[in-house]
């Protein structure tokens, strides 16, 4: 079954229709099943979950999550890792309600305890947390169960995937949360404060994904009041990094994320708005956000995302300073809608 379904969505759908999921879950939960058989069942279920959203819905209808969470109580590490891998795939699907992770109050502390088992448990659990942390209630639950202390040391892991998922965890934990952000400022990892580690991770020689996520962490901590807006790590490191992400050399998703995060960072602070407006020709750079080809439906969606991100950043840049507003409306970086307006195509 495992070999049949790998990379084949049609075969996955066929197996689900034939009733494979209840049978696999039955074998997974049977005390008489060997650990090897249970592990293989978890692997096949994980492969089925990697198919379409309908596949994930079918798995959820069969109550797969309680069965896999029960599997985490095993003493066999390979089986635990297989269950976590499957849970990761299911929880990262948009059709899975995040609340299913928090239904049983014993689950979060047990996941925290499993973080020390292997780099795979670290990667999968951090990924589950970062996808299932939606809003202050989830942040509070994870924070109260020691998420900061348990995840902080993973930022120095030898595994890039572990470091990256830990970083993503901190970005969702810190977002609009003063309590978490104030705690993060004072956390030491191998003798270094967490903000210093984030700054190292947004240097140019690091992968773009790492730079962006580190910049998000520092941005959210700053907006939550844990880091001053005139701190060097914001003015000299975070802001320039986010401006770099707006360059047309970056991937579309990176440009959108960079512009939206920068807009959020500078929104309440006039000095950051002024600095951003004169950094790396940012205003001129934003004009390129309106030049994305939009002949196909897929491109239309991306073009809309780019324009939306650009307008958010224009709004933040010009929120308080008349000189910056003039730069946007009169300079080479003005949006096409303003150009047309000035030419009399539409009323101003």
From TrEMBL:
It comes from the Eukaryota. GO terms for cellular component: cytoplasm; GID complex; nucleus. InterPro entries: ARM-like, ARM-type_fold, Armadillo, ARMC8/Vid28. Keywords: Cytoplasm, Nucleus, Repeat. ARM repeats lie at residues 19-55. It is found in: Cytoplasm; Nucleus. GO terms for biological process: proteasome-mediated ubiquitin-dependent protein catabolic process. Gene3D superfamilies: Leucine-rich Repeat Variant. This is Armadillo repeat-containing protein 8. It comes from Myotis myotis (Greater mouse-eared bat).
